[in-house]
Amino acid sequence: MVLPSAWLLLVPLLVAGTAAAQQPQLPARQRQDRRAALPTTPAEPIPEVYVAAGNLTTVAFNGPLDRDSLVVDRTRFKLVDVGDRLLALQPFADLGSGERLIVKVGFRDRALPAQAVLAVVTDSTVMDGNVEMDRRANTPEALLAALNQKEVELEELKARYVGNGPASLVLSEWLNKYMLPIKFTTAVAPADASGLEVPESIGYAGKFSALVAIRLRNLPGQPAWVVGQARLTSSSGALVKVLSVQMKSAELAPGEEGLVVVEVEAPPWTAGKPFSVVLVDTSGQRRLSLNLMTM
Q: Distance of alpha carbon 71 from its chain centroid, rounded?
């Protein structure tokens, strides 16, 4: 049987219409532009940002953003971008019911609050196009919250360092009868030591932190060396939190030796396995990288 030409033209249209009807339809949401505010006290709820799959949401702040401070699960977003004052988000898919993705970004100035914390969610009825996020910087509430936080940190420091000198180690209970110094050996000699030598290095595992003490020699003919920062990676490959880095003398003159002591949150060493230490001077130009291992 031969179909009339009119039917032949209708068949592709019917097939296309059926396929389109079978495709899942994205829920219709109303796009909104609105204003919101960052909380000034810990008791206030985290502001929510409503996103939808395939749509771009921008959050504009009235403070300069620190681009390198962004904390977000980038695997969930097709686009994540931080500008001087703008945060752009475009998710791959809608978030599940009750799901909240936390996004954190810091500010470059010294005003308070120092960080914006947002909860990214999906709503069935609305999505945010542009959100103007008001940072009520240095309000009395924000200053009081910061003061309370600093007082907590001060009490922790006072508990850790009771007095000065050797007695403080015992009074703070950091030093105990089980502690023995741990001597390290250089597992891999650094290819470029930036004009520095490491005659010896030892470690101490205290009650609530650990110390890595590295004796440095600034070779003759080198410029003076001033410790700037330290970065330690544990034997398991995890970055270790550095609490402080200190040197008794202000600087190491050419040919001079000195002791650099790095306090870390937890011991980075494991018996028989190397851990890495990176010391950088204040200029950022002279960098000493070495792998240490327990003897």
A: 7
